[in-house]
Amino acid sequence: MDADRLMPIHDAAMLAQGERVLGEEFTAMNRRVLEVTGLTSRLNVLPFDDEAGRARLLEQILGRPLAPRVTILPPFFTDHGLRLELAERVFINQNCTFLDYAGIRLGEGVMVGPKAAFITVGHPVDPDERRHFLSGAPIDVAENVWIGAGATILPGVSIGRDSVIAAGTVVADDVPAASLVAGPKGTVRRRW
Question: For residue 24, how many other CB atoms are within 10 A of its CB?
Fold first, then answer.
């Protein structure tokens, strides 16, 4: 994405001529999404004890082997995979979603509760731009962070080391290190 964090969905020259032709970058992203959706579909129906099969599919999804002692419990969902960076000892519980096109980094020892969602892409709010662009920004989660069940982490958020995100929290702003964030719109409730 460019400096403004916008990716054109359509080819600008063709759009100016009235043609709604998908742009090159968006087309490449869409191909990857279709490929990864197929891979995650296969991953999510494997027998739970097929650790070797799970490791092979995750390597294809992520574009590299998992770091040591990373645990991902299916079902697991991602739209791109190649921009999801998982450090050692990351634990991801069941039914989590990682829309990682703009990049997601989970530091060492991060634990993610079930049904958590990490969303790096979206659309501009302006109705005239909404169907023409994708917007996005990376998510960075520092070491030893705990993300509670059903939490949603939005584009551009950084979460500081040793922090806790309570279950069900929507995190739209950066989180300082060593703090508890809770509530429907993540608010710092305590620091240590």
Answer: 10
Q: CA-to-CA distance for 55 and 133, rounded, in angstroms?
A: 35
Q: Is the dihedral of CA 160, 143, 116, 120 positive or negative?
A: positive
Output DSSP code: residue 134. E
Tokens of 138: 């990376």
Question: Which pTM value belongs to this model?
Answer: 0.88
Q: Considering Cα of 12, then 34, then 1, then 181, what sign does the dihedral take?
A: positive
- The tens-digit pLDDT sequence of the chain (192 residues) is 444 567 766 667 766 666 555 677 878 888 999 999 999 999 999 999 999 999 999 999 999 999 999 999 999 999 999 999 999 999 999 999 999 999 999 999 999 999 999 999 988 788 887 777 788 899 999 999 999 999 999 999 999 999 999 999 999 999 999 999 998 888 788 888
Cα separation values, 23 from 3, 7, 14, 107, 175, Å: 18, 9, 9, 33, 35
Catalytic residues: 123
